[in-house]
Amino acid sequence: MDFRSNSVNFVPPEQRFYAGGPNDVRGYDRNELGPVVYVIPSANVTRDTLGNVVALDSSEVRFSATGGNTLIVGNLEFRVPSPIFRRRLRFAAFLDAGGLWQRGETDVAPAVIRLTPGVGIRVATPLGPARLDVAYNPYDLPSGQLFESRPNGELLRLPDPFTRDRGRRFTVHFSVGQPF
Q: In this structure, are strands 155-162 and 70-81 parallel, antiparallel, or unpaired?
């Protein structure tokens, strides 16, 4: 989906690939890896008398995953039993790798594979393993088109791409079941 032009070939969101989260690349929150657009409410955009954007409150910018048509994910996980409660408690070290991009479009960022290492704890429960994973992510969020959300629901495309710092380097996931 190309949000930089006025012509968009719509592909339903449920038919696109998304990545990031507790079951693929654990260094990212859900759907945080891959193409995104950013949206800011118009109340947080300051314009000059000519209507040009002069400032915006970047803390109010939200991202929305647009998905892609090409996905690659690889996981490596090493699990060892705990010295105590060997049958119920396991420790894990992992390295997740993944990339998500829009293949076949011009003027799109090149494909990039991101690596996120981490550690976790697995507890055997009657419902399956409960797990707590902590992953390190040294990357910023991807660059994307910035849109201003008007009160009437209209989205106005702002001219420059936007990039936001993740603000934190560790991502924590709690979930039930094996990651893959």
A: unpaired
